[in-house]
Amino acid sequence: MRAIYHNLGLSIIFLSLLVSCASSGKEAKLIKAAGAGEAGRVGKLIARGVDVNSSDVLGVTPLIAASAGGHEDVVVKLLKGGANVNAVNYLNKTALMLAVERGRGSISEILIKAGAGLNMRDHLWKTALIKATEGDGQKMVKKLIKAGADPNIQDFSGKTALMYASLNGSRRIIDWLLGGGADPNIHDQLANTALMSAVEGGHPEVVKVLALAGADINAVNAIGQTALSISSDLGKLIITKILIRLGAKVEKPDSLGRTPLMMASMNGRDDEVKRLLRAGAAINGKDHLEKTSLIVAAEKGNESTVKILRKAGARVNAVDYYGMTAMTYAARGGHIGIIRFLAAEGAKVNVMDRNGVTALGHAASSGYIGAINALLRAGADITGGKSEDKQAWHLARSEGYVKTYRMLKDVELLPKARKAATLKEMRRIFLNAVQHGAVKTISVLMQKEVSVNFRESASARDYLYLSSADLEALGEELAEKYGAVSNKKEPVQCSGLTALGLAVYSGIDSVVELLLKNGAETDAEDSCGQTPLAIAVAEKHLNIALMLLMHGADVGATNKLSGASPLIIAAKAVFPKVAKALVAMGEGYEIKDKFGFRALHWAVIKKSAEIAGGLLQHGAKTDAKDNLGFTSLHWAAMNNDPSLASTLLANHADPEIKSMDGRTPYELIAGKEGFEKTALLLKEATKSKKQEPPTKKLSDEEIDPLKYFSRLQILYYRKWMAELFKGEGFCSYKTIKGPMHSGKSGADVATIECIAKEYAGPEAEKKNPLKLLVTGKDKYNEKALAACGCDDTSQTPLAPSKQRPGEPAPVSGAL
């Protein structure tokens, strides 16, 4: 409502601006002169007969203007001239209210003597007396009370002058109000009394005065609070003592069933807690949710309060409505000190709440490792919980606390690993540890000579080569023709994973690294022919894929069921970051899957210009056909992708090749609505191809291979680094024995094969292999290049100094 009045006021002000002048003629001059205190001018205007009760659009009269401005002589003249002492402005304020608000004592007295209404209300129902108490106007209150102002009138919020005075702590005003008949037990709209206002303001003396005047000590407000509850909540210790001495009930609960002791415990008011306990507060009382003072103190992390309550006899294992104890709440909040204290006091650590979660589960779901350790030392059951999904490790994982989850799995599995006596049992624990990243358990079992390369046989996973997104990219009609739809209906079960394959599936870098360092086979296939590298690419685990490449994983390995290589999988999954590394290996461009799709086909089908560009730059064939005779250019046409079509044509894609049904790329889309741009591009390419002159055969002298080369990729992973080059007549080298392993001196060691190529012509090539062993962390790269006579290790790609005649320019969008 206040906002409504405020907006109304603004509207009226705006109206006054539209009117442009407050009033017209002599009346306006009188109002202006009165507000400016020009007594002489006011007298002349009154003598000329100007209306003393005229007002502007805001309701301001000459008397209101003079009173607000503090011009006593003008006020007297206006009253003698017949001014209405009770005229109001647009906010329903009288001259007396404005004089009181602005501390005009003498003018207020004149107005009162002139008959000003003492109990008139403004737009917020406030009287002159209420305004006087709000502003601590002691003399004004005295005058108004003597003049007969009613002290029990309530404003819009239900507050009286006594409530405002009690909140402000003005003892003299309170005495005048009480002497004038103020009722201390009137309630405002929230059922708060003057006594509660005094408590809120922190005025002990006022509390005493009101109590002696008959204020109800145990009155309850709208939310069930008493003066004592408020005092306990706010930590007003002196007032708490006074109220208890005056007979306040220490067990009076609020609307939520919370007693003053609970409020003090919740807010960590230790002195209040002690005082209430001495006054006989029930230490094990419960609120509507069955929480005790100890539970709420533990929930809020008030350790000192918890100790006070426990010493006074609080039940340590009390359970609330949710089945949670003080220990459970302390764990959920990560309050380590409280957990340790309660454990020492005999608190149960494995109690399950109504959802079947223990204290350890709550600590884990919040990622509090310190609290977890404290609970484990106190005897918490690592497998506690109603079901597996309620166990601590599972809750930590579901909330994204990966380190916490893996630590908990190690805590669970390590004792079992140390006790395991049979190989079968050790392998089962080993696979469990691999799947969940329990590195310590894995290390212990490897020390017990568990092979890292045995295959699990108990579980199987679905293998589905084509996802719904792949089928959508192919289109329903073509998917049917390729026989691809059956893959969606009948996923194959794959088993026989090694520990490395399982770790790759789980995406746990640290476990993959540990297994590789301990001799895991990088290319061990499961029953479907999937290698760890293929799994890493399919699951989009970039770091793991790079790690496997650094360990010599076979980039040309294909799946038995689909025929797909890692490069094909990367192109199909639109995974350019790993495709970049695979392209740099210089292998697998022409491997095709069971549908005849090569990596370039899939890059075009999935509209990945980045992957397609990289493949084209490094020699992928543009005119290779799939099982239906479609080239990559056919797919660019069917996808209505003029950009990729242009890239393929720039790399010598033949626009006249026909599919098995006898259609060229252009003929596939000719006349289709929306395909006009792509169709025109293919049509023009077909014309220009027919008009091309025969290509001149290049002589040996026209080829300068040593100056034409491209530097493809530098891959880094931790300490392992490999420089991958595809030589086109330039010095290159590669790691032939990797990964780097620690030598006897502790330095990193890698064996490098440097190959210097010298061309006598395009057909002749002489290889001069130089094998050398280089040591030192991150130094072999520079030494190997120097031995080969190549450039330094700058990561900036080296641009060709001379383009080979007839060679296409570098492809846009290349990796």
From TrEMBL:
Keywords: ANK repeat, Repeat
Residue segments, region Disordered: 790-815
GO CC annotation, single: cytoplasm
Record bears the keyword NAD: no
PANTHER family: ANKYRIN REPEAT AND PROTEIN KINASE DOMAIN-CONTAINING PROTEIN, ANKYRIN REPEAT-CONTAINING PROTEIN-RELATED
Protein name: Uncharacterized protein
Source species taxonomy: unclassified sequences, metagenomes, ecological metagenomes
